[in-house]
Amino acid sequence: MSETAKSLAFHGAVVALLVALHFALPAYHHGNLARIMVLAVYAMGFNVLFGYSGLLSLGHAMFFAAGMYGLGLPMQHLGLAAAPALLCGVLAALALGAAVGFLALRTTGVAFMIVTLMFSQAVFLTILYFGEYTRGDEGFVIAQASRAIAGVDLSDSANRYFAALAIFAVGLAVTLRLIHTPFGRVLIAIRENEERTRMLGYDVFAHKLGAVVASAALSGLSGAAYALLFGYAGATFASVQYSIFPLLWVLLGGAGTIIGPFIGTVFMFYLIDISSGLTSAYMLIAGAVLVALTLFARQGLVGELRRRVMPWLP
Amino acid sequence: MVAVTPLLTTRRLSKSFGGLRAVHLVDFTLPEGQIRALIGPNGAGKTTFVGLLCGRLSADDGEIRFLGEDVTRLPAHQRIRRGMAYTFQITSIFARLTLLENVALALRRRLHGKSAQVRAEAMRALEQVGLAGRAAQIAGDLSYGHQRLLEIAMGLAQAPRLLILDEPTQGLADSEIDDFKALIGAVAGQTTILLIEHNMDVVMQTAQFITVMDGGQVLAEGTPEAVKANAAVQAAYLGTA
After folding, report:
1. 3-state SS of B115-128?
2. Can you tell me whether residue B199 is helix, strand or coil?
3. Residue A145 lies in domain
């Protein structure tokens, strides 16, 4: 079997497994997994920039929030239907990505991290400032009746699961396709050796900007879907914490792998879920496990898997 | 000299770093199809000069014309697109990618990503430098000499009008240097080559014309025989017996 066929079979099997889990999981884990699948798309978006292009943003929550409010505000205040609102959320994140990328990419390394962090804080404070519309920290609930696309009620747990799975599959397909396009190959080249890439005649700035926009659009899709499927938008999702989460998920799962962001999200979600059932000092357990993983699986779970047994994993 | 349309000219090209005049008022003309060596002692300004040509450094003053067009203010990637290729003095490859992907990256921009054609041409470029058998290996695992050859393959794969090689034989074994000389002989006539080189054997055997730099300026120019005989060059660089 060629590497491409193996990779397609593998990622297809993951999606098939997630379909099967719908029928097997108890309600609690079923609900968790729907949430995880949506958040994994956020991690995939982050991974496009961090894992494949080598650019570390510390402000990705602004793109997640742009998707969330890009969908939530027009639904809440203008009565926009769910489907066009979803598109609106993605476009809001895409536009924010283009604007922030255009400015932030004038910097590199640590400065890029700080500039993205600052922009994200500005977005967070903007959400609080317009509290009259956004309800600030408290957030707002998106009316259940409006959370439907083509007559399918997305607040129903089975429908919600499959909607989450559909968005997850889209994220998987988009990132898998992206890294095999000439554009994606150049992103990897920039990650590996930016100066050499420039001296092969590639416009490094334009490619990085494309990566920021793609990354922001996927993150926005995740934020919009999260608000739509779980019926809530709040400023917490724009806070620093939500910029750090995708970094942790991607590092744990394996930066620069297609399935790593999902594995990392599952792992982190259940690490906190299980340890918080054991003790109130659950962050201590989570912290210890994270330290152990950084020491013994530096390339993340999937990164280690690729290194040891599955070298063909993209 | 025969009147040929020059591929590249510079006029009063200058670059300083702080108080140091690395390149000072250099007038330089390179005709199409020539293999030109650029020699001079360490610190003569050779790497700075080619850095200005390909856009890694921006000129303080003066003008660079490539294929009749003023490229002095163009960013590096746009000069590369107009037909320059540059190989680094310190080996610069994609160490964690395969040889095939390294060369494919050099090709894709020109071939607009047609994957079958990219693959075929990448293999051909690797064959030219004798690395086709290692196409699937990770570039960082190659020996130093092979990495230098890979870098040259990446230069050739771009099918450049002007190939700039910055000390390509540095650190190569004698047998590898012989291979390199044969390679230059094989591509002579297909492209114009500007070669920075310290190994005088390589220079004398491959170059058709030599420019000698010292202290950021052109000290002398001429055929290998003429340069060899030039007393000023001997004093500055070759060392007199």
Report:
1. HHHHHHHHHHHHHH
2. coil
3. 3-239
Contact B88 A185 (CB under 8 A): no
- Are the Cβ atoms of A189 and B56 closer than 8 angstroms? no
Q: How is residue B74 annotated by DSSP?
A: S
A192 with B77: Cβ contact below 8 A: no
Tell me: the pLDDT tens digits for B54-73? 999 999 999 999 999 999 99
Residue A314 lies in a domain: no
- Residue identified by tokens 């290996």 is B137
Kindly report the nearest CA distance between residue A202 and chain B, in angstroms.
6
Name the residue among B56, B109, B154 with its Cβ closest to that of A202: B109
CA-CA-CA-CA dihedral for B20, B23, B25, B31, to nearest 10: 180
* Contacts (Cβ under 8 Å, ≥6 apart) of A255: A47, A50, A51, A299, A300, A303
Res. B241: pLDDT tops 50: no
Can you tell me which residue has the tokens 């993605």?
A90
Contacts of A212 (CB under 8 A, 6+ apart): A49, A55, A57, A97, A98, A100, A101, A104, A105
Mark out chain A residues that contact chain B at CB-CB < 8 A.
Answer: 181-182, 185-186, 188-189, 192-193, 195-204
> Could you give the number of structural domains in chain A?
1
Closest C-alpha among A92, A155, A160 to residue A126:
A92
CA A206 to chain centre: 22
Residue A77, domain member (yes or no):
yes
Nearest to A201 among B56, B101, B109 (CB): B109
Q: Is residue A283 part of a domain?
A: no
| Cβ pair A200:B105 closer than 8 A | yes
Q: B97: which DSSP letter?
A: S
What is the count of residue pairs from A and B with beta carbons less than 8 Å apart?
A: 55
Taking an 8 Å cut-off on Cβ atoms, the answer to whether A193 and B105 are in contact is no
Task: Provide mean pLDDT across the span B123-134.
Answer: 92
**Is A293 within a domain?**
no
Task: Compute the residue count for chain B.
Answer: 241
Residue of B nearest to A199 (CA): B77
pTM over 0.80: yes
CA distance B134 to A20: 43
Nearest residue on chain B to A194, alpha-carbon basis: B94
B interface test, pick of A2, A195, A200, A209 with most B CB neighbours within 10 Å: A200
Q: What ipTM was assigned to the predicted interfaces of this complex?
A: 0.88
Cβ density class B110-121: b for 16+ within 10 Å, e for less: bbebeeeebeeb
